Write a sequence for this structure.
């Protein structure tokens, strides 16, 4: 990876931010998935941090001609992940894999419940880590949804939340260490991927831009249940649009489904209007609870990173163009503002359907 | 490791337990550090589980001529570990290493506090894992004190306890995975160690056998603070006895200190009667709080495993002897009862000093 190139582009972006208004910095942070800092200074620092990641992905995509991202939403009985690929000249990412697993069923054959005994968690998460490498291609980036450590109401943490935090942390560490130890093996192809936490808040705010808040709507909008349902609804819309709209340049089409996925979604659509995501994945969730939210979230995390990377690529192209620097900076913030409007348009279209 | 040999000895021990009284099974569980089951059936199962571990250690010791155990008490600012070695024909284990580390100081150069950001915990615990392999010999077993997941009074879990649970779990997993991945490297010497959780309750009850409970004493005895102080006091006694009693067969001598340790303990003893364990390790704990309890606990965990292994070896010798089976079984429980009495004598001697 060319460090000089990276330093140059990060420097260009920071110069672009130097004299920008706070609202401009906010929209730039939004379209690349950066934390939105409370001060201009903090906004610039967070923008640089996120660009650091995205620049690595951009250069890997140039090198390999494509980028593969696997995004996970960790849970013991509901572990969901989605894997997508973006080719160099394709406008839309393709869905390669999308699964929900009951970890106790898959790795303990339901013979035991996952206790907090470190020997058991170590064994289970090692097998899960190896499972994520079974299907090719190996991702260039693994993202794991960042778990909250607080129960909504109290400053304490409950057992199930402790368990999923431990699962998230060991998985993150295992993925990094597998690369460190495997790359010590001489004469073998080196593993080269990134592991990164994905913030559920930034994912949610990218896809559900709060409309002008009316007193009643904002309370309802913020309820956890409502936010989950709206994300599931959004993913179903993205799926149906992807199948029904053949032409991949239409603005409301965000992702491609290939092969088996195409038929499954078509079947689910034709069978009944209100299908479940679990139906598409043909999940016989014998635990009875056919939850869709983990599937929706893992899908949206993956799609967010693809969107943030594409937006970042557009920004770097503007900054590498031959036009005057001042014009470039103006074009960058214009691009960001347009992107925000497009997303609002998309959400309105989907909500009005 | 000869599986047949292992199966044979485990079978012999179970036959020995088959017709034993509950009190006999209790003393056998006690001297080998097994969980004390509530029923005879449960006692036998837990005895077998513990013997499985100890048999692996015993065979490794026969093969290598010695056994090295490294025991840890995890904490972010107070990470303590103790490493001991037991040679085949030596009656007492030797202390090879004994440290307390402030993890943020050592691995983050105090530049940042350990947040629960998985990227930071992964980086810190990887460096800690590698650090544990820096000094030779590589242990045959790593034990990590099992952390409680509950705050004493409430059914909830507080942040610091979440952090130390995550530290314990990632460390356990890292140690196991380092071996799995490293052993995939062709033509390199294989890593061969065990990783096991060490139960603080079993350690504490081995060294602080509750005297006949009087109403007042039992409440005081059970207070967490009192139990910690008595363990620190016990370790100081073990240290001073080890130095002052040259002859290693005296019943109150439990461990050998060699080289630099000898002088440090002697200096600490001569300087002032009430020395701190931190003084011996020359820890300038600039955090101001020179806590001794982590040092004491890591020491006692390690010494417990050495004691449980030695007791297990004595039991297997009795069961492998030429005498009548019935007599062997009687001798086993006699040995256990004597061991319990010796420990009570030791504690009384120490407490009366």
């Amino acid at each position: 990876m060319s460090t000089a190139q990276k330093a140059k582009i990060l420097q260009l972006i920071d110069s672009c931010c130097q004299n920008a208004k706070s609202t401009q910095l906010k929209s730039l942070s939004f379209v690349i998935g950066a934390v939105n800092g409370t001060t201009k200074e903090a906004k610039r620092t967070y923008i640089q941090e996120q660009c650091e990641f995205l620049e690595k992905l951009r250069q890997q995509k140039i090198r390999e001609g494509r980028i593969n991202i696997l995004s996970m939403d960790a849970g013991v009985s509901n572990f969901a992940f989605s894997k997508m690929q973006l080719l160099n000249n394709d406008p839309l990412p393709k869905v390669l894999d999308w699964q929900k697993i009951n970890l106790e069923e898959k790795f303990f054959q339901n013979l035991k419940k996952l206790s907090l005994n470190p020997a058991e968690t170590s064994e289970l998460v090692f097998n899960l880590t190896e499972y994520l490498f079974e299907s090719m291609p190996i991702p260039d980036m693994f993202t794991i949804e960042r778990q909250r450590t607080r129960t909504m109401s109290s400053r304490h943490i409950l057992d199930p939340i402790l368990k999923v935090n431990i699962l998230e942390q060991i998985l993150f560490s295992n993925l990094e260490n597998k690369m460190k130890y495997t790359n010590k093996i001489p004469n073998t192809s080196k593993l080269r991927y990134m592991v990164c936490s994905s913030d559920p808040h930034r994912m949610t705010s990218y896809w559900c831009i709060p409309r002008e808040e009316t007193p009643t709507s904002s309370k309802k909008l913020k309820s956890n249940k409502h936010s989950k349902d709206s994300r599931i609804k959004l993913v179903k819309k993205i799926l149906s649009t992807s199948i029904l709209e053949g032409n991949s340049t239409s603005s409301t089409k965000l992702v491609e489904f290939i092969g088996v996925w195409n038929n499954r979604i078509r079947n689910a659509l034709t069978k009944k209007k209100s299908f479940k995501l679990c139906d598409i994945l043909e999940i016989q969730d014998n635990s009875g609870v056919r939850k869709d939210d983990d599937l929706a979230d893992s899908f949206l995390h993956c799609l967010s990173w693809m969107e943030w990377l594409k937006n970042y690529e557009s920004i770097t192209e503007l900054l590498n163009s031959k036009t005057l620097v001042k014009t470039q900076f103006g074009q960058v913030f214009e691009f960001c503002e347009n992107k925000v409007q497009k997303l609002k348009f998309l959400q309105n279209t989907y909500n009005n359907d």
Chain B has one domain: 3-207+222-352.
